[in-house]
Amino acid sequence: MALAETSIAEPSLVCNDAPTRASAPMMPRRRGSVCCHELDGEAVLYDLAHHAMHYLNSTALVVYNLCDGGRTIANIGVVMAVLHDLDFQDPEVRAQVLADVRQTVAGLVENGLVEVHHEGRVV
Predict the structure, then answer these.
(1) What is the CATH number of the domain that holds 67?
(2) How far apart are CA 91 and CA 99, in angstroms?
(3) Is residue 41 assigned to a domain?
């Protein structure tokens, strides 16, 4: 079985969730074929479709749980900043938090644990 530390995967998903007139923001959502077992703030996920096991540290687990299809990357970033008592209004902090969330979501997508929905379609 494959074992992956999803929180350190290289970013390959570019999520610009600033709404424009032509497009709606991207909304990550957990895949239904993934079973999650949490233990001491971390988790082991088993992907039934691909028969793969994945480890998530506590930060990646929070991001994974926030991927409910109703939140954008920016929404998840706000929650993460609040949880870590960071000033999301500071442009440098905001940029770093959003980069970290994008990287984590990209790892989750690359490992088949999360789908990204854009304008009602999986991308």
Answers:
(1) 3.90.930
(2) 12
(3) yes
How much is the pTM?
Answer: 0.78
What are 52's strand-pairing partners? 47
Q: How many domains are there within the chain?
A: 1
Q: How far is CA 15 from CA 72, 89, 117, in A?
A: 9, 20, 11
- Residue 40's domain comprises 26-110
What distance in Å separates the CA atoms of residue 3 and residue 19, rounded to the nearest whole number? 36
pLDDT at position 16, please?
A: 42
Longest dimension (CA), the chain: 44
User: Distance (Å, rounded) from C-alpha 69 to C-alpha 83?
Assistant: 20
Tens of pLDDT along 67-110?
999 999 999 999 999 999 999 999 999 999 999 999 999 999 99
